[in-house]
Model the fold of this input.
Amino acid sequence: MNRTPRRRNIAPPREDVLAAVMATVAERGLDGLTMAGLGREVRMSSGHLLYYFRTKDELLLQTLEWSEARLGAERRALLTGPGTARERLDAYIALYLPDGHRDPHWTLWLEVWNRSQDADDDARARQAAIEDAWHRDLTELLADGIARGEFAAVDTDRAATRLRALMDGFSVHVTVGIPGTGRERVLDETRAYADETLARLAADTRATGVPPAS
Done:
């Protein structure tokens, strides 16, 4: 007797699930992201999703890592591309800051940060790896600008820490929609800070021959 073969419930590729998470956050925000709703989007049960990702926290962190990998490739391309160090710094700043209110990547980042209070050591290490990649690329860019004579001879690690802290604060304001802190204003303020602390100091150094104290 012939039997109709039973269809297998084949899970979609991991990247499809993570892309669906980002699309849901972009469209409906984090409140609209449920395991049941996501399961319907990718044609999986919420139980299957939990089988593959274990917890919602893990799903969010993996989605952030996936999004960061894409941003990392874009960041490395612009940092090794043509142009002055200052032009590449402007591009880094533009990539770092959110696109606007409820930017999905930054919305996800803020949620992962919030949940990290109770995260285990592995999750914390993975979050730190994301932060370290941005910091490392920025310090290398600043060092290149110093070598080219475009930036003052500052402590690159300290300067990168301060610049990223400024951008983090601004990014929170843009993402949550605090009035008066839209993307364009924040871009202007951050670039002005870079002028004041790097480019203008470099010009002073060339004029006087005396590097500023770091």
